[in-house]
Write a structure and sequence with these properties.
The chain is 89% helix and 0% strand. It contains 2 helices and no strands. The longest helix is centred in the C-terminal third of the chain and has 20 residues. Keywords: Membrane, Transmembrane, Transmembrane helix.
């Protein structure tokens, strides 16, 4: 039962930087497209 909360936290913690990074990456592409 100890692994369940840890796994749940990992599922929440990992996607957050991933989505932030993808948004940052997409913004970079959009900035180039506007130029």
């Amino acid at each position: 039962m100890t692994n369940t909360p840890i796994h749940a936290i990992d599922e929440i913690t990992i996607p957050l930087p991933a989505t932030g990074l993808s948004l940052f990456f997409t913004a970079g592409i959009a900035a180039r497209a506007w130029e």
